[in-house]
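Please study the protein below:
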Amino acid sequence: MESDEVAAAIVYNPELEKFLLVKRAENRERFPNHWEFPSGFIKEGETVENAALRELEEETGLKGEIVRSGESFPIEIPKVHVHPVLVRTDSEDIELSREHTNFRWVERSDLEVLKTVPKLKQDLENVGVK
C-alpha cells in the first residue's frame, strides 16, 4: 500500500519564541484530542511548501513565510510520508477550522507533557530545531 503525502507547517513566532500546536477534534478518526502542527495532504501538482502554507491558512487563518523545508520521514500508522516545513508568522490571531478545538503556543520543552500525534518531535528535528 502506498503512503499518503502530508505537509506539516511547523509554525514559529519569533516574537513569542514559541511554536503553534493545534488540538485535533474529538470526532477525528485518527488521534482525536492529540496535539499536532497544522498539516494535511499534498494535492496533486502542489509543492510541499505551498501545501504547508495552504493547510496553515485553512486550519488557523494564519499566513506564514517559509523559513526552510526539512527531510521527510514515514509514519507507519496511518501510513503517511510527512514533509515538515518551518514557517514563520508574526501573527497570533488564530481562527481554527472545525478540524481542531484548541491551539497553544508552546516551547519545545512543553512537548514532553502534551499528548501529541506520533513523531511530532521528528518534525522539529528535521527542520533543524533541536
Notes: The domain at 4-126 is CATH 3.90.79.10 (Nucleoside Triphosphate Pyrophosphohydrolase). Residues 68 and 86 are 5 Å apart (CA to CA).
